[in-house]
Write a structure and sequence with these properties.
Layout lengths: L3 E2 L2 H23 L4 E7 L3 H16 L3 E7 L5 H13 L5 E4 L9 H7 L11 H8 L10 H14 L7 E5 L6 H10 L3 E5 L6 H5 L4 E4 L17 E4 L3 E4 L8 E4 L4 H5 L4 E2 L6 H21 L1
Parallel strand pairs: 1-11, 2-3, 2-4, 5-6, 5-7, 7-8, 8-11
Antiparallel strand pairs: 9-10
This protein binds guanine.
The site of guanine has 9 residues, from strand 4 and helix 6.
Length: about 290
C-alpha cells in the first residue's frame, strides 16, 4: 500500500491534550469544571456505544459529565423539558442530543430548543448560519467535520487553495458543514450525492475526497485520483462470516485497501475520523465554557 495511513487516534490525542489543558485553565478561573450533558433516547446499540464513549472521555478530561438515558417511549414534550432544564443549568456548557431520535419526535424542534451557546454539536440554525457566513470564530462547528478538516490539514497544511475537494454526501451532520469548512480554506468544492450522475467521474476529480454516504465500501479504488487525500467518514457494520458465525466488522464508505494503492493519504476505519469526533466534542465543550464565562 502506497498511501500514508492518517492516524486519527494519535491526532485526536493532541486535540484532547489541548482541550484538557484549556479545561485545567478554565476550572480555577470559573470555580467549576466545564460541563457536558449527553442525552440518548432509546436503545440503539451503536448510539449507546457512542454516548458511553463521549461521557467517558468527558470524565477523563475532568469535566462535569452527565448522561441522560431516556426510554424509547419518551415524548417530545418530555425531551424538550429536559433540554430546557439543561439550558437553564449554569454548570452545563454543552448539550448533545444523540441522533437519530425516535420517529415520534420532531428532531428539528429538539435541535432548535438547545441554547445555541451550549450547542456543542453545532446543529442549531444559529451555529449553522455562523458557519455558513464564515464567522467560524464565533460558531460551534460540528465535531465530525471539524475533526475531518484537522486530518486533511495534517497532510496538506491549512490552505487548500487550488485544490478540488469533493464531498460525497449532503447530510446536515457531515456533508454540508465539511463543504463549508473546505470552502473557507479556499478549496473548490463539489457536493455530490446519491443522485449525482457518474459519481465515479466526479470523485476522480478530487484532490481531497470526503466520503460520508453511509454505504459500505461504495467508493472503489478506481474512483480515486492519484495522489488524493481521502477522508472516510463512514462507519458501517457488515457481516464477516470469515470471522465466524454471526460476526461483523466495521468498514467505511471507501474500499480502503484498493484506494490506498492510489491515494497519497487515507483515513482508516476504525481509527480515522471516529476518534476525532469525540476529541472535537471535548474541544467544543471547553470553547463553549470559555465563551459563556467570557
Ligand atoms: N449521530 C451520529 N453522529 C452524530 C453527531 O455528531 N452528533 C449527534 N448528536 N448525533 C450523532
Amino acid at each position: 500500500m502506497a498511501a500514508e495511513i492518517i492516524d486519527g487516534k494519535a491526532i485526536a490525542q493532541t486535540v484532547l491534550a489541548k482541550a484538557r489543558a484549556a479545561a485545567s485553565a478554565f476550572t480555577p478561573r470559573a470555580g467549576r469544571p466545564p460541563g457536558l450533558a449527553v442525552v440518548l433516547v432509546g436503545e440503539d446499540p451503536a448510539s449507546q456505544v457512542y454516548v458511553r464513549n463521549k461521557s467517558r472521555e468527558a470524565e477523563a478530561a475532568g469535566f462535569r459529565s452527565e448522561q441522560h438515558n431516556l426510554p424509547v417511549t419518551t415524548t417530545e414534550a418530555e425531551l424538550l423539558a429536559l433540554v430546557a432544564r439543561l439550558n437553564a443549568d449554569p454548570g452545563i456548557d454543552g448539550i448533545l442530543v444523540q441522533l437519530p431520535l425516535p420517529r415520534t419526535i420532531d428532531t428539528d424542534r429538539v435541535l432548535m430548543a438547545v441554547d445555541p451557546a451550549k450547542d456543542v454539536d453545532g446543529f442549531h440554525p444559529v451555529n449553522v448560519g455562523l458557519l455558513g457566513s464564515g464567522a467560524t470564530a464565533r460558531a460551534l462547528v460540528p465535531c465530525t467535520p471539524a475533526g475531518s478538516l484537522i486530518l486533511i490539514e495534517s497532510v496538506l497544511g491549512p490552505s487548500l487553495a487550488g485544490k478540488q475537494a469533493v464531498v460525497v454526501g449532503r447530510s446536515n451532520i457531515v456533508g454540508k458543514p465539511i463543504a463549508q469548512l473546505l470552502l473557507q480554506r479556499d478549496a473548490t468544492v463539489t457536493i455530490a450525492h446519491s443522485k449525482t450522475a457518474d459519481l465515479a467521474a466526479v470523485c476522480r476529480r478530487a484532490d481531497v475526497l470526503v466520503a460520508a454516504v453511509g454505504r459500505p465500501e461504495m467508493i472503489r479504488g478506481d474512483w480515486i485520483r492519484p495522489g488524493a487525500v481521502v477522508v472516510d467518514v463512514g462507519i458501517n457494520r457488515i457481516p464477516a462470516p470469515e470471522r465466524g458465525e454471526g460476526r461483523t466488522r466495521l468498514v467505511g464508505d471507501v474500499a480502503t485497501r484498493e484506494a490506498a494503492e492510489i491515494a497519497r493519504a487515507i483515513t482508516p476505519v476504525p481509527g480515522g475520523v471516529g476518534p476525532m469526533t469525540i476529541a472535537l466534542l471535548m474541544a467544543n465543550t471547553v470553547t463553549a465554557a470559555h465563551l459563556r464565562e467570557g
